[in-house]
Records
---
Amino acid sequence: MGNRAAERGSVLILILSSVALLAGAILGLLTVENGRARRTRTEVERTRAFTMAESGIDHVRVLLDANALPPSGILDWSSDGQDNDGDGRVDEGDESLRATTERWWSDAVDNDGDGLVDESDEGLAHVASTVRIGTSTVTVTGWVQRLATEISFSTPAVVNLVDPNAKLIFKGNSFLIDGRDRDLSGGWTNNPPVYGIATAGSKLSVLAQLSKQQLDNVNGAGGKPSITTWSAPSSSWLPSMVETMRTQADVTFDHYGSTYTGSLGSEKTGNYLVTYSQGDLKIGGGSTGAGVLCVDGNLEITGKWEFVGVILVTGGVTVKGGGSSQRLTGSALIGSDFVQELSLQSQIKGGIELVYSSAAVAGISGTSARYTVAAVTEP
């Protein structure tokens, strides 16, 4: 009897031991599988986070194309009210993308270490795009390149007056407007000339504002004085062009209160810049530039000044002083009056020269800036 009890006890212990071993094995297997599932889930989350972070860089490129990126340069999916990941929900936990954009072409920093800031070869935007899904956080760095583009541009004359009632005032004979085509070295080309002055108003009105002695100072197509009538496609055409160029600006002035005397590009070094001024702009002696100068307001020029390219001004242009070294090589579109104010000394020395150059105008023709993702890296 005692032996049977002992045998049953041994069997029970064996069964319990086996159950414990089996339970341990099952627990171990579950632990392994749970770990594998967590790793798989983490890998899925990380892959999805990486894909979303990359899409954030593409999203920044699209917004730059559309000129719709916020001025802060920050793209935040967590609070934009959009279903960015296509799951039918908005601003949920996994829409955590945050991308910050630094525009090298307008940050006043020497990003490429050449001693210059915001020049034409700094046409890159640095984008850091971060996404967090579950326990996985991924940051992707992207480089969005601004492509060299052009705006649709053609000019009937050197000086183009958009306002039919614009005043055209010159002092004495201290000016030259020449629509014959010059190359950038100063010589003449065989290309046909444009007119010296084009007005949206009456040609007779312009003639009445010039003295007999001044008529010979306006040269170009049709002989002297070279004047024609011309109308902009619409009343909003010039402001729209200026606004279009704002999105491409290499240099930006925001209601600049002082007189600018620095460089706005150089034709000699091939550094053609887009300069945009929100509000009136004063440019003083010693200033030079090349490319496109856009002023959403009035432009005032004093002292020595040279520019190669196109000037777009929604308001009027006033030229003061400066002698014979005030010179535009290219073309100008002006929304209001053109007035030359010179002292007696300046009149003796000579005034402003406005000369046409197809080479200066070339390269300034298309509609808006275009961008492409140049590179993507993961830190």
---
Amino acid sequence: METEFLPELYDADTQEFIEQIQLRGGNTRELLVVGHNPATEQAAALFCRPGPGPVAFPGAFPTAALAVIDFDADDWVGVKPRSGSLVAFTRPRDLAAEND
């Protein structure tokens, strides 16, 4: 597992956020991107296909939320806006509720 820190993502706009994912994802099957809003939320929303899917996109993307988006692409360059399916979404409060 390789970890790469990209300070430029902190203040990135949505387009730069998406470009960095496409540029740096290579052909790995799974990619975890930790970023800062609003670009994180906007990129996740832009990646998801409109309409019903396995999980509905939330109205808000709070701090420490996790969106799992599935793509049918051979590499991250092939990942385009509206090409993904949101398969899971977890907020910190959801984890707390599971432990009650």
---
Amino acid sequence: LNTTAYATYMLLFAFEFDPEKFGFDKNKNNVPDILEEAKIGLDWLLRANYEKFKLITQVQDLRDHTVGWRLPENDPLENQRPAYSGIGKNIIGIYSAALSLGAKIWQEKFNYAEYSEKCLKAAEELYSIHKKVKDVDNSTVMYIDQRFYGKLALGAVELYNTTKKSKYLNFAKEYADSAKADFWWSWGDINSLAHYKLSYYDKKYSEYIKDNMDHFYQYHKNRIFGEGAAYSWGTNNTLMGISLQNILYKKITNDNSYNDLDTFQRDFVLGKNQWGISFINSVGKKYVKNFHHQVSFLKSRDLPGGFAAGPVTKDFLSNYDIPFENFDYLSKFQTDSSYFRDDRNDYVSNEPTITANATAIFVFGFYGNRK
């Protein structure tokens, strides 16, 4: 639920940020494709709210990793999928953010009052108990946040933007001030989204984003390829998050001071790196092809637009004892401090995740087709 809510929110956020640029409709059904994709997420989130004040936070456990690669219709774990129920301030925050923004868009764009009201009711009901639940949901072993203030702030400001109820704006400011800058970007570190939304009511919140950008800039100055953050699980998502935060900061302040930093992050994922490889499938002359992605592998299909998780350190990767399938054709470019395998078994550096793809869609969608 945590990652699905984040990915859904980012698609909705992108459309709201620039409805013209993100209003592409390739199948010509008068619904922007990005909103069709987002609705899959919204519907899933609504179903996850299986009972009042209760959420399913994860379906399936680590047995998924022990039965081998298979297509969904050949899943030996059919009817053996446990569902985990949990709640926490962090989950309520990102859940409410996605559902309330969805409610706003479906009312304004489609005049679809019934669906809008359904989304908004779910968001408001869950947010109403945020003070009564634990800080961070730990009902699963996956995707557990370290903090919650930023997500609570984001949920509150989106509820305010949709309902105009002053209590939500008060909550949003309180939690955004507690969140401060997080000096990172991932599915769990998204304080800048709340600060960006609140900056339209008080410019002081843009200073938190500036603190982040200053931190990334200082790191970037000492890197050969200009990366703004240390390598970790999901490196490329973090680099795209730096670019995203620059876009938001510029929108608020008209300050272009971090444009070069932004460019270095995009260049890195497009091939200006030690491997000379684009981390986005079908983009560039040399790109990642052997994703940790079951359907594309079993169907022998490319995954255009698939975005690899990105490099880590050699020690970090070795901790997972991955049985690599193929010879490392990038071996002469590998170092202890910077390591990436284009191998289908590498779920650490070579998995195309919904969270990284959602961040990259915003960044490259924003910069694409500029006039």
---
Amino acid sequence: MAKDKFFIISHGGSYDRLYQTVTIAVTSAALGDEVYVVLFFDALRKFVKGTMDEKELSNDMGPEKDEVYGRMKKMNPMSMEDMINTVKPLGNLKFVACSANVEFMGLNKEEVSKKVDEIMGLPTILKMMKEAKNQLYI
């Protein structure tokens, strides 16, 4: 039986957006979906640099963002990298970098290749997304 494909387009690099991306991705993968997280812009940079857990919430969180961050860390003290590493061995969680964004963000292609499962062009990504049961933009 084929697994349902789920694509998450991750664009924003704030802690709350990255946390939402990772928690949805690892939960869906743990439930058996084939999950692709496609990384763009600041999400790509922070994923590659290993800085996803920096305390930098979006302004969408309002004036209580420091308190929200504290509650999030208390409820789930695992780092995003630890969450990913816990689920990644299942084999159905993939991280993809958009090739143009690697260049846009001035990232070293070899460094990016060590962190993601694949670097792809947008046409290939969009073609693959047509097969997905679910798609999400964060």
